């Protein structure tokens, strides 16, 4: 009982919202199957061990063994913020009162000098108060003489063998315990004040009136969790992300929103006053994300305030009077608990007119009661939503059935709310348009949502379980199902595994539950891919040729290499006469690039590839790697290897919710003339203003990438080499105004111009006519020659892409741009209106590229493989 009360007391300003049974009677052990959080106390039987307890939700259970001073926390329990410092501060409070931490005995160190005996102070203060029935001075003097006479005659003992001094000592011990309790509560209250001191800034007041808020309560968010977490220290995020999903925090925020139309909850009113005092003395730190641990500074003041309240006890005692009972009812034997009077207990406390005689009535104002009637208060005021203990304590079969039915309905309601919340959080722009929150969701928020869903699934599968087979009811169920499948046996009857009231035996609720879970197939979550880094995953790779030329597809020993944020698959050969391959390797994480190549087997081995599709067979994620270019010698840029940039394909709806198999539907690729690196119709259609705007936008996207939190950053390779990336925009810049004297408008590649500039610089250097900086010219020539000497056949487009990426990484790209613009070949190869011949445009682009020098740019191995620079 004491432990349970202590836990709920230390939660200030939050309130426990679920089942609270500090002492669980044996007839009510069925409540241990409750699929909701609970706080219960179980009596240990003689010789009983921890393993003998049959608890279905053991994976999420915190077991406190009071007798043996042992705590078994649940799996994956996050650390409390500044946990070590908090433990140290609590230990200091215990030592101050002569108690050893971890349940030790009293120390031999003498306690600090105590103030004057509180009992004597109270006695003196109330001595002359005749309203309380106390004796006056003369009567008290007579009583003292009688007590002295009794002591001389050997009758100094009080009733029960307790001396007057012993009674005072016990009172002092109670006072000491009260002081310690107050200081311990202040320590924990100080921690919650530090963590949630600015919570009001993140409360969302979206409803204009009470009726609107009540009608849309489940569909709206009252707290900006993403912004709140982004302002917290990184070490606190794991705990806070879980704590924000608890019912007591949601209740706390709901109370804050509800206070616009009704009275604030008492605990919240006290907490808000404490925050106002903290702001008045400016004790909050300016940078919450860099918060340091600060010990509680009001321990002494809290003890003094408690002593002042005890000295002025607000109590009105009544004169002695006869009790309303029959003769003999109050008798009991010494050492035995008396028999309780059922008729007196049934009357309740409201029959005592003395207990409520002097309670002051608060003035009722129109503002606090106009929008909320009594029924709404009882139903929607979170602080007053306390489970009906009388129904829980009824062991009759009908009451048990009704209680379990309420649990089933609660699980279904929770599933509906959670899945809807997960959909709105993950749908990005759609959720912003509907007013449901931020567009971006961080990895931390994603993990928070999935963890909450896993907790719900575990509680659902553990409800009404007949026999516990492991710590996790859901995992045991899956293993049982797998074992039956391998033995080719029919699945076990659920009625044999679960009790009649179990959620999984309620057919209608179970179908609705699965319907809500299937709605999550419309969004993608990457938490499994990022969390389980060592798991082996099968991948399916499908090469899709151009639709009209698929018959002419001829590839010689094609191969692929898939790369992700956790590694690459290595070279995987594709079988002959096929367009797909399935291989298994360690989790690659979120996929970013794919290398597609073939052997050099003559001019006949060529193929116009539309795209490559990679499917994760476990998570169901599908990545599309657009290509739209030739692969083969003597066609296009002569590339035998392409580095493709992937993009995650969004689920297409219910038809895509199942397992993806077979070749995906072919999609039209962009025209080859519009591909990057070659002179075509696209580069001529773009105006100079559009080209410059695209370049600035590409650089701006890179800058924004590095200014985001690390868990929010996307794929850097896509920003460099993808559609609309830096490589594409620079190619457009260099293709603008390029002259082409070739017949039939054959493709002209920027790499051809770069090679000519390099040859011109090397020739001028040998002849001593080089005007530009020798160091910059040497760097450009060195990089270009190293790329040409690479054993990879990546083609002219791939070579230019590699040159740009290396230039950005090594902070040489702006200088190289000036070299290309000032070369004498530029006037020959470009028209007069070309951007590269416009000194102002070149200087502007150079300054824009200089903004990337402050960021560390790391290139994927797939981009720089084979080049030693």
TrEMBL record:
Keyword Repeat: yes
SUPFAM superfamilies, per database record: Lipase/lipooxygenase domain (PLAT/LH2 domain) (SSF49723), RUN domain-like (SSF140741)
Subcellular localization, as worded in the UniProt entry: Membrane
InterPro entries named in the record: cDENN_dom, dDENN_dom, DEN5A/B, DENN_C, PLAT/LH2_dom, PLAT/LH2_dom_sf, PLAT_RAB6IP1, Run_dom
Signal sequence coordinates: none
GO cellular component terms listed in the entry, alphabetical order: membrane
Domain RUN: 717-864
GO molecular function: guanyl-nucleotide exchange factor activity; small GTPase binding
Pfam family name, one: PLAT
Domain UDENN per the UniProt entry, residue ranges: 1-263
Region (Disordered), start-end ranges: 650-681
Residue stretches spanning the membrane: none
Annotated keywords: Guanine-nucleotide releasing factor, Membrane, Repeat
Residue ranges constituting the PLAT domain according to the UniProt record: 537-645
Source species, domain of life: Eukaryota
Family affiliation: Belongs to the RAB6IP1 family.
Protein name per the record: UDENN domain-containing protein
Organism: Oncorhynchus mykiss (Rainbow trout)
């Amino acid at each position: 009982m004491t432990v349970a009360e202590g836990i709920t007391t230390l939660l200030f300003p939050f309130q426990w919202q679920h089942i609270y049974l500090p002492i669980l009677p044996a007839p009510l052990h069925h409540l241990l199957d409750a699929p909701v959080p609970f706080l219960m106390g179980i009596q240990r039987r003689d010789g009983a061990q921890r393993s003998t307890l049959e608890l279905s939700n053991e994976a999420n259970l915190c077991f406190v063994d009071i007798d043996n001073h042992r705590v078994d926390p649940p799996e994956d329990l996050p650390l409390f913020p500044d946990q070590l410092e908090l433990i140290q501060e609590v230990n200091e409070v215990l030592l101050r009162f002569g108690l050893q931490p971890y349940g030790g005995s009293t120390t031999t160190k003498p306690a600090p000098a105590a103030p004057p005996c509180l009992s004597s102070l109270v006695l003196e203060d109330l001595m002359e108060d005749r309203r309380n029935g106390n004796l006056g001075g003369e009567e008290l003097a007579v009583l003292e003489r009688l007590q002295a006479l009794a002591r001389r005659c050997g009758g100094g003992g009080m009733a029960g063998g307790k001396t007057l001094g012993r009674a005072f000592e016990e009172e002092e011990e109670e006072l000491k315990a009260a002081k310690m309790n107050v200081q311990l509560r202040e320590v924990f209250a100080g921690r919650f004040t530090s963590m949630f001191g600015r919570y009001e800034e993140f409360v969302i007041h979206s409803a204009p009136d009470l009726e609107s808020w009540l009608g849309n309560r489940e569909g709206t968010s009252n707290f900006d969790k993403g912004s709140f977490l982004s302002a917290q220290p990184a070490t606190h995020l794991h705990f806070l992300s879980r704590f924000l999903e608890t019912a007591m925090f949601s209740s706390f925020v709901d109370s804050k929103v509800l206070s616009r139309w009704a009275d604030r909850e008492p605990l919240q009113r006290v907490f808000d006053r404490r925050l106002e005092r903290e702001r008045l003395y400016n004790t909050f730190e300016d940078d919450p994300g860099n918060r340091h641990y600060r010990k509680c500074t009001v321990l002494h003041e809290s003890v003094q305030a408690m002593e002042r309240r005890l000295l002025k006890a607000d109590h009105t005692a009544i004169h002695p009077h006869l009790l309303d009972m029959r003769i003999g009812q109050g008798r009991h034997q010494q050492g035995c608990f008396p028999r309780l009077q059922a008729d007196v207990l049934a009357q309740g406390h409201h029959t005592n007119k003395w207990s409520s005689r002097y309670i002051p009535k608060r003035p009722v104002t129109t503002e606090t009661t106009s929008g909320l009637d009594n029924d709404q208060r009882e139903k929607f005021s979170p602080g007053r939503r306390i489970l009906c203990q009388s129904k829980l304590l009824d062991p009759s079969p009908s009451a048990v059935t009704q209680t379990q039915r309420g649990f089933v309905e609660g699980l279904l309601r929770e599933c509906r709310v959670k899945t809807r919340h997960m959909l709105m959080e993950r749908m990005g722009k759609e959720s912003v348009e509907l007013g449901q929150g931020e567009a971006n969701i961080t990895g931390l928020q994603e993990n928070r949502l999935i963890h909450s869903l896993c907790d719900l699934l575990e509680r659902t599968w553990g409800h009404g379980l007949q026999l516990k087979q492991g710590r996790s009811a859901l995992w045991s169920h899956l293993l049982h199902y797998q074992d039956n499948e391998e033995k080719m046996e029919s699945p076990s009857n659920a009625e044999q595994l679960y009790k009649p009231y179990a959620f999984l035996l309620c057919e209608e609720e179970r179908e609705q539950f699965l319907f809500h879970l299937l709605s999550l197939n419309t969004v993608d979550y990457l938490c499994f891919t990022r969390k389980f880094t060592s798991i082996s995953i099968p991948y399916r790779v499908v090469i899709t040729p151009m639709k009209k030329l698929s018959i002419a597809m001829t590839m010689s020993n094609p191969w692929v290499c898939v790369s992700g944020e956790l590694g690459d698959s290595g070279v995987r050969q594709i079988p002959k006469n096929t367009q797909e391959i399935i291989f298994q390797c360690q989790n690659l994480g979120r996929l970013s690039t794919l290398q597609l190549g073939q052997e050099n087997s003559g001019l006949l081995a060529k193929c116009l590839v539309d795209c490559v599709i990679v499917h994760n067979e476990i998570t169901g994620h599908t990545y599309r790697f657009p290509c739209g270019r030739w692969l083969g010698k003597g066609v296009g840029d002569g590339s035998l290897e392409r580095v493709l940039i992937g993009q995650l394909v969004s689920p297409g709806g219910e038809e895509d919710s199942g397992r993806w198999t077979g070749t995906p539907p072919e999609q039209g690729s962009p025209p080859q003339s519009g591909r990057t690196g070659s002179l075509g119709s696209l580069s001529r259609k773009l105006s100079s203003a559009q080209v410059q705007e695209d370049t600035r936008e590409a650089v701006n996207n890179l800058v924004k990438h590095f200014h985001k939190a690390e868990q929010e950053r996307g794929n850097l390779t896509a920003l460099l080499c993808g559609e609309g990336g830096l490589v594409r925009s620079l190619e457009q810049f260099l293709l603008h105004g390029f002259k082409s004297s070739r017949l039939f408008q054959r493709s002209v590649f920027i790499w051809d111009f770069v090679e000519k500039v390099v040859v011109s610089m090397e020739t001028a250097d040998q002849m001593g006519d080089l005007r530009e900086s020798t160091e910059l010219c040497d760097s450009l020539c060195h990089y270009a020659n190293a790329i040409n000497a690479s054993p990879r056949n990546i083609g002219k487009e791939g070579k230019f892409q590699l040159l740009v990426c290396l230039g950005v990484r090594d902070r040489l790209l702006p200088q190289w741009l000036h070299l290309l613009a000032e070369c004498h070949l530029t006037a020959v190869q470009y028209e007069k209106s070309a951007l590269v011949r416009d000194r102002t445009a070149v200087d502007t682009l150079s300054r824009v590229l200089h903004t990337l020098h402050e960021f560390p740019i790391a290139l994927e191995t797939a981009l720089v493989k084979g080049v030693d620079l």
